[in-house]
Design a protein that fits this description.
- A three-stranded antiparallel sheet has the order 1-4-5, with no helix packed on it.
- It is an alpha+beta fold.
- It starts with a helix and ends with a strand.
- It has three helices and six strands; from the N terminus they run H-H-H-E-E-E-E-E-E.
- It folds into two domains: 53 residues, no CATH class; 47 residues.
- 5% of the residues are buried.
- InterPro entries: MIEAP_C.
């Protein structure tokens, strides 16, 4: 039980510091909207998922900018040569590790 409460305390401390960092970054955002977003279960689940991805040693690795390798990404709705934006980043077990999820990109 002691380890559980210690990990809960650590997670709460990290949540608080993350909230402060996010709040500083989005200080121009409407405060009411920001508080509403941060109080949703979706936000909390995203935070927990991200936390579970960074605590392994080595941590999981996201590639946001797609590579030219078609084995690492696929096109979202149409084919093209120029990447407009990333719909979903590529996820690796760790940096230079096995590819877990192929990236999805919007191209034109």
């Amino acid at each position: 039980m002691a380890a559980e409460s210690t990990s809960d305390q650590l997670l709460e401390s990290i949540r608080k510091s993350k909230k402060e960092i996010i709040a500083a970054y989005f200080k121009t955002m409407d405060k009411k909207i920001f508080e509403t977003i941060m109080s949703t279960s979706f936000f909390n689940k995203c935070f927990k998922l991200c936390w579970k991805m960074v605590i392994p040693d080595p941590p999981m690795f996201l590639v946001i900018r797609p590579q030219k390798d078609k084995n690492v990404f696929r096109e979202y709705t149409s084919s093209g040569t120029k990447v407009v934006f990333t719909v979903w980043p590529a996820l690796y077990l760790h940096k230079n590790g096995a590819l877990l999820v192929i990236s999805v990109v919007k191209v034109k």
